[in-house]
Design a protein that fits this description.
- This protein is of the alpha/beta class.
- The chain has 14 helices and 18 strands.
- It has a domain of 149 residues: NAD(P)-binding Rossmann-like Domain (Rossmann fold), CATH 3.40.50.
- Strands 7, 10, 11, 12, 13, 14, 15, 16, 17 and 18 form a ten-stranded mixed beta sheet that branches. It has a six-stranded parallel beta sheet with strand order 3-2-1-4-5-6, sandwiched between helices. A two-stranded antiparallel ribbon has the order 8-9.
Length: 483
Amino acid sequence: MGLNIISRRHFLGRTAGLAAGAFTGPNLLLKGQDKAGKRLNLAVIGANGKGQSDTQGVTLDHNIVALVDVDKKRLEEAAKKRVDHHLKSSQPEPAAPKLYQDFRKMFDEMSNEIDGVIVSTPDHTHYVAAMHALKHKKHVCVQKPLCNYISEVRDLHSTAKAAGVITNMGNQGRTMEGQRLAKEWIEQGAIGTLKEIRLWTNRPIWPQGPLVKKAAECPANLDWDLWLSSEASEPYFEFEIPAGVNGKRGNSVHPFNWRGWWQFGSGALGDMGCHIMDATFSILGQLIPEKIDATSSQISDTCAPVWSDLVYHMPAGKHAALTVSWNDGSKDGKPNKPAISPHMTSEGAIKAFEKASSGMMFIGTNGTIFEGDAYCASPVIYNEDLWLQTRLDMKSGKIKKTETRSAMPNNPQGEWAHHIVNGGLPASNFDYSAPLTEFVLLGNLAVRAQQSVQWDKQGMKVSNAEAPNKFVARPAYRDGWKA
């Protein structure tokens, strides 16, 4: 059948009309104001970089009363960018927030002025910063991954539940239409029986692999001791970049290249897994794998590999038992991608797959849902005839919208603030995002173990070998940092 395929983004935009707001949960009073005020007093820890865009998600509707960043220059830049964002949005210049380099000092001085806290620091500081916020009974929104050790994820989750606050994790895809459509298509039989899932990313796009630290002079604007936070004190360092390692981002850990270091980041999986694995986790009913197989390039005690290949063995649940594969990085100068789905045989399908630097394939008996980005924002179905039929079935009502839509699409920070004010729960609240993060970090556990690991979910341990269990919890915390 000939087919003139309409733009998938145009199609998704036309099908996104389901009303939001069906989440359930407490409607908590705001500290220092009544619900009618609808403006929260928020603090952002890790104010520049991703924190700057996270701030933009809430600053027009709420009051940013504090910005925190260990880099004085980046802190001042973040404050200026926020003003610029207001002016470009035709809003008056906002009241200036208080600026801090140490979030502990912020809580000491102005905790009673804050309703909620956004944490957008390097991964190793997510846990300690969020736990300080929870200690002060603040609503909290944490960037992905929630933490870079599984025991921290569990502790953060249980502490948040005890505090009774509204939580969220910053994974944009969980707010989008496409992820929900993919789940509805699969559950209503659009591609037959789900048999396999293949995921991949071009990350790392920063140096990883066998890196070696070398002493360097700390930039004057950076408080390195605060940057280390709960990690053991050590001199500021840069690193040598060996042959075959992506060096485009330079050799400084701050502000971007911390991602490849186990103590600070969580590699390609930690950077992109909570995005790319998100739709999979939702579609499979939020299950945790029973076993993970792992192979990778050379790793070390300090750094993640240049590439890795994983197979998650998923138990039966909403669907029959199946495997989820993950590929990241590059091998021999070529993207480390999975094999293309057998349903993707047309010229257009092959080109779409070749173009996708990150993506996912949900392979069924009759067809494949394909998305060539990290968020499952705009999925399509192959073959093309099946894609056309699926759209017709949606238009006729044969395929129904069964998933609750987000109140704030593509804005997890805004969604979090919305539910603090109006009640209900964000889609990636910690009841969802904590086990999602655990799902992701189990891949790193297998990579660091350099073997297949069988996971005892209840016992929070590897059951088939003892050595990998040393990677479940952070080895130590520096005095004065753990709340």
